[in-house]
Amino acid sequence: MERDATWVGTSWKMNKGPSAAAEAADRLARLSFPATIQPFVIPPFTSLKDVCDNLSGSRVIVGAQNMHWEDSGAWTGEISPVMISECGAELVEIGHSERRTHFGETDWIVNLKVHSALHHGLRPLVCIGDTAKEYSHDVTLETLARQLKIALHGVSEQNIPRVLIAYEPVWAIGAGGRPADVPFIDKAHNHLRSVLINLAGLEAGSAVRLLYGGSVTQDNAASYSRLQNVNGVFVGRAAWNVDHFHALAEGV
Ligand code: PEP
């Protein structure tokens, strides 16, 4: 079912500390989601264990917002995939544009993290996206192909379907962003699908779930999710409130 489901998820970013997150997870656990939807939430690290505990046994998958590629060691301030797994999370977000922009995360680092996540049984949710400048210079498709190929470099055909990809145009994310228009997303996602099939073959390339993110709201979510190569939406602001998240998931 997971393969055919429409994935609907949100990262809480640097919001909801342990008590607010535990309360939100408690509420989420009591809501029911349509069988066609695969919901997921990505709390900050300090809330991860509580959210995993409160959602265990529910249909909501929990993820972490980042990880280091090593299992342990002298990496002050970092969190390893082993620690994330021990909390009970199944998913890990890798390469969000805020991490690329503010913390110097490159495509090559993303690739290291993807391998490590898979090695530890975590599903990587790899975020890729073009900047406003790349968009205005009409190099979006080339940019996305480059990011995708480097992120997946060396990943076996067998593991490729475990990776989720979120296309998040940098110009569409956050308060200063604007939603992308639907024909453009259709074109970008069709291109991503063909890159994936070229890389991994028809079966594995078609199995990868491709999500769209960037100023998704209750009003526009369904216009994206009904596209053939959009298998879900990854939402920020419009889904931080649990009831809004639920309503958005019911509407896609
Ligand atoms: C994001 O930051 O990944 C995101 C999708 O944010 P928003 O929905 O708020 O634009």
UniProtKB/TrEMBL annotation:
Subunit structure of this chain's protein: Homodimer.
Q: Does Transferase count among this protein's keywords?
A: no
- Keyword vocabulary terms for this entry: Cytoplasm, Gluconeogenesis, Glycolysis, Isomerase
The entry lists its GO molecular-function terms as: isomerase activity
What is the first-listed, main subcellular location in coarse terms? Answer: cytoplasm
Cellular localisation:
Cytoplasm
Q: In which pathway does it act?
A: Carbohydrate degradation; glycolysis; D-glyceraldehyde 3-phosphate from glycerone phosphate: step 1/1; Carbohydrate biosynthesis; gluconeogenesis
Short name of one Pfam family: TIM
Protein family: Belongs to the triosephosphate isomerase family.
What is the E.C. number? 5.3.1.1
InterPro entries recorded: Aldolase_TIM, TIM_sf, Triosephosphate_isomerase
What's the gene?
A: tpiA_2
**Domain of life, source organism:** Bacteria
* Organism listed in the record: Gluconobacter japonicus
Give, as one word, the top-level EC class.
isomerase
The catalytic activity, as recorded, is: D-glyceraldehyde 3-phosphate = dihydroxyacetone phosphate; L-erythrulose 1-phosphate = D-erythrulose 4-phosphate
Record-given protein name: Triosephosphate isomerase
Q: Which NCBIfam families match?
A: PRK00042.2-1 (NF000722), tim (TIGR00419)
